[in-house]
C-alpha cells in the first residue's frame, strides 16, 4: 500500500520523468551489454575456429619457434599401442588469389585425419570425366599435388566451383591449385568463417617449401596415467606439449587490457546513468515530501518509507536493465564491427559474425543496472525516512538547504586519494590504480558541482540580467534555489563532458605522437608488400629469392628486408621482428627511449648478437638494456642481450627486434613480410614504383606502396581503433542530457505554482520559454567549465598512468584544439537544447488550476 | 489608469474531468455588470464559484460558454498572447497566499510586471509603490524575511505598480491576523480612492465586505446582486 502510494502511482502519473530515467539506465546498461557481447563474439569466433581446426585432439605438440621436423612423429610411435593417436598438421596463414582474401591453409594426412576432424564432402571431382561425383575411388584425386579442398559456402562466395583454378600464396610461395573437393559446413570447414583451404600434408610440404616440416602434431591421448608424462619425455627440443585451449587463453590474455579499457569507457555511461537514478529518486522524494509527511503522521515507520523508495530504485534498475539488454544486443552488432576491426588490426585474425545473448551477459546486465540503481537510491531514501513529519508537511519548505562546506572538504579528500591511487603500479597488466584515480577525481568534481553551479550562477546573473532583463535574472536566481537537484544534473553533464575532453586530449595527443613517430620511422621511399592491404603479416610472405633480385635493380640504393612472427614468451604471445640493422643505421631512424642514439644501440646489437626491445616490452616485462631475453628459437631456447629500448606504437604486446642474419640463424626463416626500399638520389618515385611493380608484380605478386600511403594507412587504422571510444562517449553525453531534461522537467512540476504566477503577472509564453532555456544554459556553462578542468586532469591520468601501465606507450601531450572546441560546443548546445522540452512543458501549465484559486 | 466596466453575459463554466476528479459544473448562465470604478465584493460559501468568476474576469481562464467583456473588449475570444498582454498591462492580482517569487527580493517582486513589459523608470516607480505600502525600508529583503502582513503589502504593491484598471483580490486577508487584515483592507480602500480602479474582491468576511460599494452573492454557480 505504502509503495503503491509513494512509488507506483506517482511513477505512472509522471510518465515522462519515469521514461527518461528508465531510458538513462537502459542506455548505460546497453553499452555494457553491447561491449561484452561484441568482445565475447570476437573471441568466440577465434576460439571456435581453433576448436574446429583442433577437432578431437586433446593435446598438441607445438614448436616454440613455429615449425618442427616431421621426425618428431617417430618418437611417438611406441605410444600407439597404448591408445595414443597422433596426426601431423601444417596450419599456416596464406592468401587466396585473385580475391586476395586471407585464408587459413590446413595441411593434414587426409586418410588418418578422419580420427581427428570431421569432413563431410559435398562433392569431389573425378579426373577422367571432369564431373562431380562422390564415389570412394574419386577421393584419390584429392591426393594429387595440386588439389585443394574448400568449404562449399566459401567457394560459392569466391565464385569458384569444382575444377576451378585458384592460386594460394603461402609463406612466399605462390602456387596454382585446382579445387577438387567441396566440404559441407562441418568441422574445420566452419573455422575462420569458412575461409580455410585443406590440402594433403605432402602437398603442403611440397608446395610451401616445408619439406620434412610440420607446424604441430595433434594428439588424442587416452585418460591413462603416465602417458602424458611419457609424451613429455619424448618431446624433441624446442617443442612443448599443451592443450589446444591454451592458445585461446593466450589470445584472451592478449586482449585483456583492450577489453578493460572498453569497459572502463562503458562505465562512464553507466556512472552518468547512476547520477540520473539518484536524481530521480531524490526528486521523487522532494515531490512527495508532503505525502511522506502525511504517511508518517498516520504511523508509517521510517523503515517502511526507506523500503518504498529503495524499491523504486530497484524497479527503475530492473526495467532499465531489461530495456538495456535488448538495446545492447542491437548495439553489439555495430560495436562488433569496430571491435573486430581493431582486434584484426592489432592482435589476431578473427571473423566474428553473429551476436549471441548468453545467460551470463543477461545476468551481468541486470546485476549492473539494478545494483547501481539501488545504490544510488540509498542516500535519498535514507534521508526521506529520517525527516520529521512536520518538516515534510510544512508549506513553503522547498528542500533541505545544501551546505557546500563539508562537500568541499570531501572533494579535497577525494583529490588526495586520487593522487595517491595514481602512484599504484599495475596489477596483472591492468591499471587498477589508474582507474581508481579516475574514480576519485570524478567523485571530487561531483562533490564540487554545487559550489561550481552557485558560483557560475552568481557570475552569470549580471550578464543574463543585462541581456535578458528580469527573465535572465530570474533564470540565474532559480538555479541556486534548487541546488540539490540541479547540481546532480550538472555533475552528470560535467562528468560526461570531462570524459569527452579527457579522451579527446588523450586520443589527440596519442594521434600526434603516432604521427610524429610514423614520420620519423617511415623514412624509406617505397615498401614492397606481398599483398594489398592486410594487417596480419603472416598471411603473405616473399620468398628469399626476391631480395637478391632487388639488390640488382639499378635505381635501388638499399633494401631492408623485414620479417617477424608471433612467439610464445612465458605465458604471452609477443612479436619477434627482424630487419637489416646496417641499413636502418645508415638510412633510416629508430626512435629510441634509451640509449638516445639508435646507431649505437643497433651496432651493439649486431656486435653482441643482441636485440632491441619495444618500450611496451620493457614496461611489461621489466627489462632494461643490459638484461637478457630468452626466446624459443628453432632447436630450443636461446638468450639474447638487450642493447636498447625503442618506441613502437604498432603493438602493445611487446616487440623484440634483431638483425636479419641473427633472425635467420635463430629461426631458419629467410622469407620477408615487407621489403623497405631506399631509392638512389634523383630517382622519380612514381617511375620507380611502376618499374618495380612491372618487374616483380607478376612474379612475386608484389605491390609497391609509397611512404605517404603507409603513413596514411597507419593513421587510418589509428582512427578506426578510436572510433568506438567516441561512440561510447557520445552515449555518455546523451545520458547526461537526458538527466538535464529530467531534472528541469521535474523542477517544473514542482514550480508549477510559481510559474503560473509569473504567467498571471504577465510573463508571456515566449519569455517563459527563454527563462527555461537560460536555466539549462547556466547548467550547461557550469558543466562545460567543470568538464574542461576535469578533462585535463583525467587526460593526465589516462596518458601517464592508465595508458602507460596497460600498453607501455609514452605519449607526448598535445592539445587538439578544434576537437575539444567541437566537443564542448556539442555538450553546451545539447544542454541548451535540453531546456526546450521542459520549456514547452512550462508553457502548457493551466494557470487557473495551478494557482488553485478555488 | 481609471477603472473599466466588467460585463459577463450568459457565462457557464465547467471544469473538465481529470484523473482525480469528475467534471464539475461551477457557473451556470451567469450574467453580471460591474460599472467602471466600482468596488464589488463577491461573497459565497467555499466552492460556490467565486474564484472561478475572478479567474474569468482576470483572463486566466476562458468560459465554457458565454462572453466576458472588459470595457468593450471581449476577452473570452482573445488569443493567448493578447491575454498575456492584457494581464500584464490592465489587471492586478492579490492572492490569499501572497504568491511572491521567492528568488527575487522585495523591490524586484514589486517591479516585476514593469520589468516584463520593459517599462521605463522601473526603479522610481517601484520606490513609489513601496512607499505607498510603507515598505521602502524592506526593498532589498527576500520574501522569506518578511512577516505575513508585509508579504501581502508587497503583493499589493506589485498588483498596483502599473496602475491596472482592474484589481482582483481573492481572500486577501484570509491568511492574516485581524490587525494585519484591517490594515490591508485599509490599504486596498486607499488605492480605490486614489485612482478609482474597478476592484472585485472575493471574501468570506463581513468586515472585509463592508469596505466595498456593494455585495454580489454567489451560490451554486449563480449570482444575486
Write the layout of secondary structure elements.
The complex is a heterodimer of chains A (854) and B (225).
Chain A: H1 2-13, H2 15-54, E1 59-63, E2 68-69, H3 72-76, E3 85-97, E4 101-108, E5 121-125, E6 132-133, E7 147-151, H4 152-157, E8 165-170, E9 173-183, E10 196-200, H5 201-207, E11 213-214, E12 216-220, H6 227-233, E13 239-242, H7 245-287, H8 289-297, H9 302-346, H10 359-386, H11 389-393, H12 405-421, H13 432-468, H14 470-481, H15 483-521, E14 526-529, H16 545-551, E15 556-569, E16 572-579, H17 581-587, E17 592-594, H18 598-608, E18 611-614, H19 615-621, E19 628-633, E20 636-646, E21 655-659, H20 660-667, E22 674-679, H21 685-700, E23 703-706, H22 707-750, H23 752-760, H24 765-807, H25 817-834, H26 836-843, H27 847-851
Parallel strand pairs in A: 4-10, 7-9, 16-21, 18-20
Antiparallel strand pairs in A: 1-12, 1-13, 2-11, 3-4, 3-8, 3-12, 5-6, 5-9, 8-9, 14-22, 14-23, 15-16, 15-22, 17-20, 18-21, 19-20
Helix pairs in contact in A: 1-9, 2-7, 2-9, 2-10, 2-22, 7-9, 7-10, 7-15, 7-22, 9-10, 9-22, 12-13, 13-14, 13-15, 13-24, 14-24, 15-22, 15-24, 15-25, 17-18, 22-25, 22-26, 24-25, 24-26
Chain B: E1 6-15, E2 24-34, E3 39-43, H1 50-57, E4 65-70, E5 73-74, H2 80-90, E6 91-94, H3 106-116, H4 122-132, H5 148-160, E7 166-170, H6 178-195, E8 198-202, H7 206-209, E9 214-219, E10 222-224
Parallel strand pairs in B: 3-8, 3-9, 6-7, 7-8
Antiparallel strand pairs in B: 1-2, 1-4, 4-5, 9-10
Question: How would you characterize the overall build of this protein?
Answer:
The complex is a heterodimer of chains A (854) and B (225). Chain A is of the alpha+beta class. Chain A folds into four domains: 1-54 and 250-397, no CATH class; 58-243, no CATH class; 405-522 and 713-854, no CATH class; 541-700, no CATH class. In chain A, 58% of the residues lie in helices and 16% in strands. In chain A, strands 1, 3, 4, 5, 6, 7, 8, 9, 10, 12 and 13 form an eleven-stranded mixed beta sheet that branches. In chain A, strands 14, 15, 16, 17, 18, 19, 20, 21, 22 and 23 form a ten-stranded mixed beta sheet that branches. In chain A, strands 2-11 form a two-stranded antiparallel sheet. In chain A, helix 9 (302-346) runs antiparallel to helix 22 (707-750), helix 15 crosses helix 24 and helix 24 (765-807) packs antiparallel against helix 25. Chain A is elongated. Chain B has seven helices and ten strands. Chain B has helices at residues 50-57, 80-90, 106-116, 122-132, 148-160, 178-195, 206-209, and strands at 6-15, 24-34, 39-43, 65-70, 73-74, 91-94, 166-170, 198-202, 214-219, 222-224. In chain B, the strands form two sheets. A six-stranded mixed beta sheet of chain B has the order 6-7-8-3-9-10. The longest helix of chain B is centred in the last third of the chain and has 18 residues, at 178-195. Chain B is globular. The chains are: A alpha+beta (854), B alpha/beta (225).
